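User: For documentation purposes, I need each entry recorded in a consistent format: the amino acid sequence on its own, followed directly by the corresponding structure tokens. There are two entries in this batch. Please keep commentary to a minimum and don't merge the entries.

Assistant: Recorded as requested. Entry 1:
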Amino acid sequence: MKLFKTSIHEQLFEEPQSCSNLPHSHPSFAQLLCTLVMTILQQANQAQMQSIAIPAIGTGNLQFPHKIAAKLMYETVIKFSQQNPQSSLVDIRFVLYHKDKPTIQVYF
């Protein structure tokens, strides 16, 4: 079995992007989150990864609402799985900061 670790986030954008100036209620922010998660999953699948861990994106410094972020991330993983039934990814996990109680509560 081939084991390797890689960081996909560095490969997502050619230039650094910032969404911190978007209002959190703005639909573009939600779309950006979904697109980011889908891109991470697609790149992991293309790299033939079997597992991936994705942090709770946007819930920290960007202060995106925890419940919305969790819902969007779960829905994006389900959509990816439905669109890619033969994906190499069999283990998709969300990483939560152990001291971030509001985020932990909505993911469990």
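Entry 2:
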Amino acid sequence: MGASPDSSQAEVADAPSDASEQLSESVREIREKAEELLAKLGRLEGRLEAAEIQEFSLREGLAKEKERSRALRAELDLERASRGGRGGRGVQKSPFGDQRP
């Protein structure tokens, strides 16, 4: 039973030191995890920005192609209308190689 007063005081003194060390270790781990998450967030933000730019470019290209399609359709309709009574078909080849008006 003989714990001397000096050894009891040493144990009490070690307890806060251990708690402090564990707390420091926990803080370090949390800080490392936070840094990893921030780095991952930065990468994700970069990928999102690239995807947004790509989406914008695709939408812009689609709008241009739609306009081009409308213009070609209008041109085709005018061409068909100018051919009049031929049904807008022009000269056709038969399956046998000769031409039909």
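Summary note for entry 2:
The chain has a mean pLDDT of 83.
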